[in-house]
């Protein structure tokens, strides 16, 4: 068990971009800032918060999203919907292979659509090896519209040669990469990114009214996410069983391990599962916890890529105990909001949980530091600052946007 590293080691190797030095336009649109967003996550309104913030800063926004998107968290496909104020910006388009983030394609004439929208810059909210990123690169490049992509991928895993070639082409031509973590930024540079690589993490939704924690409850350990083996839930169950009664273990989510975990015996109680919470209801889920555990395991093809639940819990004043898988140590080091243990070390996990149980002052200190860091780095305005700096940088590149609307080299769509 170890406290999260101080902000000053590898956390700062890929610094957050400085906030753009431009006045807020308070709803007025700047005619020189028209942004095209292509995003499958933005099929959900909650994932449009940064884009609505950009619109409020004067960007003219157009969002191409899948018309429908199958989800493991929903019995039926999600239908695209807009946040209030973004109704006119939303362009739902049919996709093939929906529900597969790296393999879906948009069933539209992308170049013709881009020519009609005529953006000054585009942001493809997709990995550089995703087929959709390559599809839109081919549409935007002949129109000389600068574009950027995102990067969560934090494992240099073997990919088929055609996919590596597509990734290289996207990174060669991208004006910027919005790296969601330190490791993701390092990898895209190693893979040949030529444009600006900046840390542009996702935003915490920022629930304004946080529920009061239930009074008189036992010390409660929680988990939020998919109930799958890679999330280390067997380790968590064993660790909680090493704690003295009374203790509660609350799992927020669903997945293949639910049947085996729900109702399992722990000292003085049994495992509870809370399912079906909407995103707006998650704050009420976190309010039931004294500590959030993120005991993820690394696999040959995956390790924790960010840990959105970490910043959500910290926003709600809940400290975190996380394994050293993937980006968990980086994120806890950046926020100072938790303790780290060695992946797979059940006794180390139990020791960290026990320490937070026995030291309320430490819980409060970690929660306070984490909340302050999330307010500084991961609120919607802060996350928008980071992305906007990359967008403005792309507009400043030589030739950016000079041949918009089809006045440059073109080819049939």
Characterise this structure.
A seven-stranded mixed sheet has the order 1-20-19-18-13-14-17, sandwiched between helices. Strands 6-3-2-9-10-11-12 form a seven-stranded parallel sheet, with helices on both faces. Helix content is 31%, strand content 18%. With 413 residues, the chain is α/β, with parallel strands linked by helices. Helix 6 links the parallel strand 13 and strand 14.
Structural class: alpha/beta
CATH superfamily of the largest domain: Glycogen Phosphorylase B
What fraction, in percent, of the residue positions are helical? 25-40%
Overall tally of domains: 2
In percent terms, what proportion of residues is strand? 15-25%
Q: How widely separated are the two ends?
A: 56 Å
Q: Biggest β-sheet: count, sense, barrel?
A: 7 strands, mixed
Please state how the strands of the largest beta sheet are arranged side by side.
Answer: 1-20-19-18-13-14-17
CATH architecture of the largest domain: 3-Layer(aba) Sandwich
Please state the overall shape, judged from the principal axes of the Cα atoms.
elongated
Supply the CATH class of the largest domain. Alpha Beta
What's the multimeric state? single chain
Write down the CATH topology of the largest domain.
Answer: Rossmann fold
* Count, helices: 13
- Output the radius of gyration: 22 Å
| Count of individual beta strands | 20
- Report the mean per-residue pLDDT as an integer: 90
Q: Spans of 5+ residues with little confidence (pLDDT < 50)?
A: 4-12, 22-26, 401-413
